[in-house]
């Protein structure tokens, strides 16, 4: 397998978002990219959602959507936006990779909850304002790497990893999220979207993602062998 390291960063390097369904394989990809230490890679802030002054809002969301859908989406946008702001302040010029974007929080997860009647249109209007506040326009190029995985396979992986909060997630819910992500990234998004086959092995997915990054920047060259993390 080929691995890579980064040469010196240049200005206006892109912001790259890793997107995909729950259990699509993007977290494993993010972990493997982070282990190479080529450029900053930030995970989805799941731990921030699991401990809000001792309260697990991710678990509350899945157990009582009617009550917790809107508060959770406010939290998700706030934490995703804070993470992005801090990263770009610390790395104003270099290429950066973030797992999940504020846009995804609104366009996929909040929209999905709205279609399930768990969030009202007045809530969606407020979330759009919040999205614009936490993720204002940037002059840096934005690219999306979409790990596109069939819902049935994502559901198998979800059950295999056995996170307590996800016990009530159904394949119907994953299918809804999959369809909303397709609509957003494949039909409506104006920034470049690079689609990866989520059924690839972690090694293949890592190599494919690095090829995309290499083509975007031209800063990536082969390095010494490093073993990727196996999918959870």
TrEMBL record:
Keywords: ATP-binding, Nucleotide-binding. This is Deoxynucleoside kinase-like. It holds the Pfam family dNK. The active site is at residue 99. Signal peptide: none annotated. GO terms for molecular function: ATP binding; deoxynucleoside kinase activity. The gene is LOC117644838. One of its GO terms (cellular component) is mitochondrion. Residues 16-198 form the Deoxynucleoside kinase domain. Belongs to the DCK/DGK family. ATP binds at residues 20-28, 157-161. The keyword tRNA-binding does not apply.
């Amino acid at each position: 397998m080929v691995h890579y390291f980064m040469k010196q960063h240049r200005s206006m390097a892109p912001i790259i978002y890793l997107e995909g369904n729950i259990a699509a394989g993007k977290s494993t990809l993010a972990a493997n990219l982070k282990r190479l230490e080529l450029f900053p890679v930030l995970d989805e802030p799941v731990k921030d959602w699991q401990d809000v002054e001792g309260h697990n809002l991710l678990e509350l969301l899945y157990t009582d959507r009617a009550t917790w859908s809107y508060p959770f989406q406010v939290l998700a946008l706030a934490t995703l936006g804070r993470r992005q702001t801090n990263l770009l302040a610390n790395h104003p010029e270099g290429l950066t990779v973030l797992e999940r974007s504020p846009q995804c929080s609104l366009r996929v997860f909040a929209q999905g909850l709205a279609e399930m009647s768990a969030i009202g249109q007045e809530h969606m209007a407020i979330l759009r304002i919040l999205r614009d506040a936490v993720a204002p326009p940037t002059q840096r190029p934005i690219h999306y790497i979409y790990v596109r995985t069939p819902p049935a396979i994502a559901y198998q992986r979800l059950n295999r990893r056995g996170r307590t909060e996800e016990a009530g997630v159904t394949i119907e819910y994953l299918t809804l999220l999959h369809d909303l992500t397709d609509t957003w990234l494949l039909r409506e998004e104006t920034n470049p979207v690079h689609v990866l086959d989520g059924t690839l092995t972690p090694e293949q997915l890592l190599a494919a993602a690095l090829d995309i990054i290499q083509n975007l920047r031209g800063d990536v060259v082969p390095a010494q062998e490093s073993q990727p993390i196996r999918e959870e």
